[in-house]
Amino acid sequence: MSKIHAVVLAAGQGTRMKSKLHKVLHPVCGKPMVQHVVDTLAAMQVEDIVVVVGHGADAVQAELGDGVTYARQEKQLGTAHAVQQAAPFLLDKEGTTFLLYGDVPLLSVETLTALRSYHEEQQAAATVLTAVLPNPTGYGRIVRNETGEVLRIVEHKDASSEERAIQEINTGIYCFDNLKLWKALKEVKNDNVQGEYYLTDCVGILRNQGEKVVGFAADDPDETMGINDRVQLSEAEAYLRRRIVVGHMRNGVTIIDPSSTYIETDVSIGADTIIQPGTFLRGRTTIGTDCVIGPQADLTDVKVEDNVSITYAVMVEASVAAQATVGPYAYVRPGSEIGPGVKIGDFVELKNAKIGEGSKIPHLSYVGDAEIGAGVNIGCGTITVNYDGAVKHKTVVDDGAFVGCNTNLVAPVKVGKNAYVAAGSTIHQDVPDDALAIARERQVNKLDYANRMPRKGKKQS
């Protein structure tokens, strides 16, 4: 096959979104819609990806970074004019060029690959990606000849009654022979009511030049959905979310209720894992095999190994090793590493904490900026006092230590190997290996104290 190039049009203002955020930067399943387009092209190993920017150019470039080439359309004078801005980068190159839009994020690698293959098999100058709709009102119709080649694209308002009966529509997505594309673009005129240069005119120009123009119908018309407002954004989100969960289920993942499960594009899940309802898996989260995630688990950029259980928990930029359990109602913050077989229980918060193999933090504790060894037990209500108002300090609890309930570990501090800390202690000095640390006020009982104190509702003599 020939080399592939692509032009992605992302210069429009997108006023119907009614948003400060550029239209193509609105996320679909956690990723800006234009990033979906670029990632699909990258997965196809497209050699040159030129993104045409205009309104919000700086924001679009900041999001996409250096992986693509940018062309700027200072004035929006139509789709053909937008494509022409990419000429300095593609004009003299041979191969096939895709023309895509930054607000059409649902096109799959499979559909674009099939479009390209058909285009090159037909040795066409241009191939239009079409869709067959039960109600094509408002869309440009594809008019073919008796051999199936595309004669022209007729806009709905200009179509005859016979042409309006055609259900095959123009999606606005094309494959072009690159050299023939630029030749045709030179002939596009703006002699229309809007005074704009339309890409659709290239079809008629190429036909007049004796070139072959064909159409390729998408198997799933919903893939060609463009997003112009918040309603269409929600429809695209629902479509892509469904496609994502179906893909995971076909790969051996059990998803109890797909309609209440939210999985973003870059998440990976191993076989025989069960995803319970109400679960959100975001970013680049990876989950191993034989896990149970949820219900109501919310994971962002989390690495989860095999045979892990996470329920009613929020986790961000953390990792969980095999055989560990997290939750219910745990909050695991960035930088935390949960080791093999660890138990993180209810109402436990971790932040930048490394928890060693087999350790337990069962409930109602805060462990931050800490390194907890293997086989450690952290009692209920334990707090690592890590912040002095200016600097975060580290707590270290060595292997086999036992920290009693309601303990404050005032960092920087270290509890030695196999040491004990008595319940109710405030520890601000290091505890040696094998020692017992008790740091609490000696109990004093004031006898008959209650009888000398006034009480509500009781008259005093």
TrEMBL record:
Superkingdom as given in the UniProt entry: Bacteria
Active-site annotation: H363 (proton acceptor)
One record GO biological process: cell morphogenesis
EC number assigned by the record: 2.7.7.23, 2.3.1.157
Entry GO CC: cytoplasm; membrane
The record's free-text note on cofactor binding: Binds 1 Mg(2+) ion per subunit.
Keyword terms of this UniProt record: Acyltransferase, Cell shape, Cell wall biogenesis/degradation, Cytoplasm, Magnesium, Metal-binding, Multifunctional enzyme, Nucleotidyltransferase, Peptidoglycan synthesis, Repeat, Transferase
Pathway connected to this protein: Bacterial outer membrane biogenesis; LPS lipid A biosynthesis; Nucleotide-sugar biosynthesis; UDP-N-acetyl-alpha-D-glucosamine biosynthesis; UDP-N-acetyl-alpha-D-glucosamine from N-acetyl-alpha-D-glucosamine 1-phosphate: step 1/1; Nucleotide-sugar biosynthesis; UDP-N-acetyl-alpha-D-glucosamine biosynthesis; N-acetyl-alpha-D-glucosamine 1-phosphate from alpha-D-glucosamine 6-phosphate (route II): step 2/2
SUPFAM superfamilies: Nucleotide-diphospho-sugar transferases (SSF53448), Trimeric LpxA-like enzymes (SSF51161)
Family: In the N-terminal section; belongs to the N-acetylglucosamine-1-phosphate uridyltransferase family. In the C-terminal section; belongs to the transferase hexapeptide repeat family.
Name of this protein: Bifunctional protein GlmU
Species name: Brevibacillus invocatus
Gene: glmU
